Amino acid sequence: MTTRITQIKPPEARELEKKRAELATLETRLAERELDLATLQAELHSFEGIYLRVVGSRLAELDEIEAQIAEAGARHKPKGREAQERASQARTQAQESARAVEAEQEAGKREPFRPSENLKKLYREVAKRIHPDLATDESERQRRHELMTEANRAYEQGDEARLEAILRDWETSPESVKGEGPGAELVRVIRKIAQVEDRLKAIDAEIARLEETDLYQLKTQVDQAEEEERDLLAEMAAGVDQQVAEARGRLGSITGSADL
Amino acid sequence: MSENDNQVPSALVRVGDRTLAVRSATLVKRGLALATSLLLPRDAFFNYLLSGPPQDKGYLDSAIAECRTAVRLQPNNVEAHSDLAFVLCSKGDLDGAIAEYRTAIRLQPDYALAHSGLGSALRKKGDLDGAIAEYRTAIRLQPDHANTHILLGLALDGKGDREGVIAEYRTAIRIEPDDAWAHYSLGLALKSKGNLDGAMAECRTAIRLQPDFALAHYNLGLALEMKGDRLAALDEIEKARELAPNNSSIAEADKRIRRKAGSG
After folding, report:
1. How far apart are CA B25 and CA A22, in angstroms?
2. Domain B52-159 has CATH 3.40.50.300
């Protein structure tokens, strides 16, 4: 008769193994959702820029002319409270529109955000390894946060080399080294799981919020029109151009200037 | 989502410093309204409404297709469903129309126009009780809509409730004294009760308000014929025929009165 000796893992180690597997699954999901969010944000950001350049600039021009018309009206009725208020509101709107368009012009020309598969893969890896919610103390969280900030910027700019460098640096940094006993490690893993779950909920909420915005709805309409081979932004621009021409005519008839 | 959600200048995301700064929510909101107006097939729909019952079925199909696009683009847009229902009803697809009206009502239970439209689709299907219930709901929600009273009158007419019919038409006229169709409808109801003088007065009012109202001329002619004034009747019927040369009932009446006038 032979005696078979089996090595039984202590409960803490077994639990740790289980929790690590759970965390690994969650980390993968977290990376995927971070990618979804980053992609949506970058798409909206670039679309916002294109929209402001193509249509917003024309609306700003229209607002400026409308403000001039309202101000001319107010000059004709210096004691008319309603005319004065209308002129003031029109001027405020024209200034707001002009500021929005100027800010976009300063940011430079944007192209539609279309990330490559490799870029997405790199971002997913970064999010999986460096995510701040995988930190176990505040200083590590801060370090991870800074790196994610950089990674987000690199992703939006389509900078694959920078994402690779961030990953490389992280792998060789002291933060990536893990150790200590199973008890402490178990506590750490459980805490990470809770953090990751919280973050997943926050991402879902943020994506849902973004999908409710006017900007997202406008982008969706433009995308759907594109599928039907319509350039909706160009159509909108043409519509505003017509309004601008009409407004110029009105202003000209008020001020007596044919060439404005 | 609250109105303010789109006005927040920037939304900060917890991870990293990603920001989505909607720099001018107002410009975006205006763009969305502009885009929607370009995508929604309002032109086709309103052209259809203005043109009356279309002779060109292809045009109606085009209006349906465009309204379907509107529904696809804006599945929660009550008006889009209601517009689609209206054109489906005009096409004769009553079941489709009823389904769309019901969707509109589900999305906005207090949308009077959808209740009224649903009433008309049910009336055309022969469900007069259902139609009356929907018209009454529409009137409860929007009591000052003259046309709904007229539609309710039509449904009550189908049930043989002549007093109810006249009451609804009078209400419509009280709301909109210059509604030629309401006067004309009341004229028909009075004629069916044997009140020819009342019927002629209402038809004349309708004609005064809308001189090219062929059916008002026609029914005034019929009432005059019943009163024995064939020449005046013929005069009205001829006017009706000029205005609606393809209407077979008017053509028949014209022939009949001419024959009688000739023999008299």
Report:
1. 41
2. no
